[in-house]
Amino acid sequence: GVIPYLAPEIFESGKYSTASDAYSMGMIMWEITTGCKPFANVAHDIKLIYEIFDGERPKITEDTPECFAKFMKKCWETDPKKRPSIVEIKNTFR
C-alpha cells in the first residue's frame, strides 16, 4: 500500500483488518473531497510514517460537508476499535 492510505497500526504489526480498511476509506474520502492525494506535498518516508503514527492527518477543507468531515475523522481514529465497522460504513452510504 501507499503510506498515506495505511492505518497507523499496520506500521507496527504489518497486519491488515477491517479497521485498517476503514482508515483507508477515510483517506479516499479526503482525496475525493479535495481532488488531491493525501500528504502529496511531503516525502513518503519514515518521517511521514512517524507523523501518521503520532496522529497526523490531512487537513479537512472548509467546503467539505460536515457529515463527510465527521465520518472521515471517525475513520482516522488512532484506536482501530473506535473506527466505523463495515456495517456502519455500508449503512452510511446507503
From TrEMBL:
GO terms for molecular function: ATP binding; MAP kinase kinase kinase activity. Residues 1-94 form the Protein kinase domain. The keyword Secreted does not apply. Pfam families: PK_Tyr_Ser-Thr (PF07714). Signal peptide: none annotated. One of its GO terms (biological process) is JNK cascade. Keywords: ATP-binding, Kinase, Nucleotide-binding, Serine/threonine-protein kinase, Transferase. The keyword Transferase applies. InterPro entries: Kinase-like_dom_sf, Prot_kinase_dom, Ser-Thr/Tyr_kinase_cat_dom. It comes from the Eukaryota. This is Kinase-like domain-containing protein.
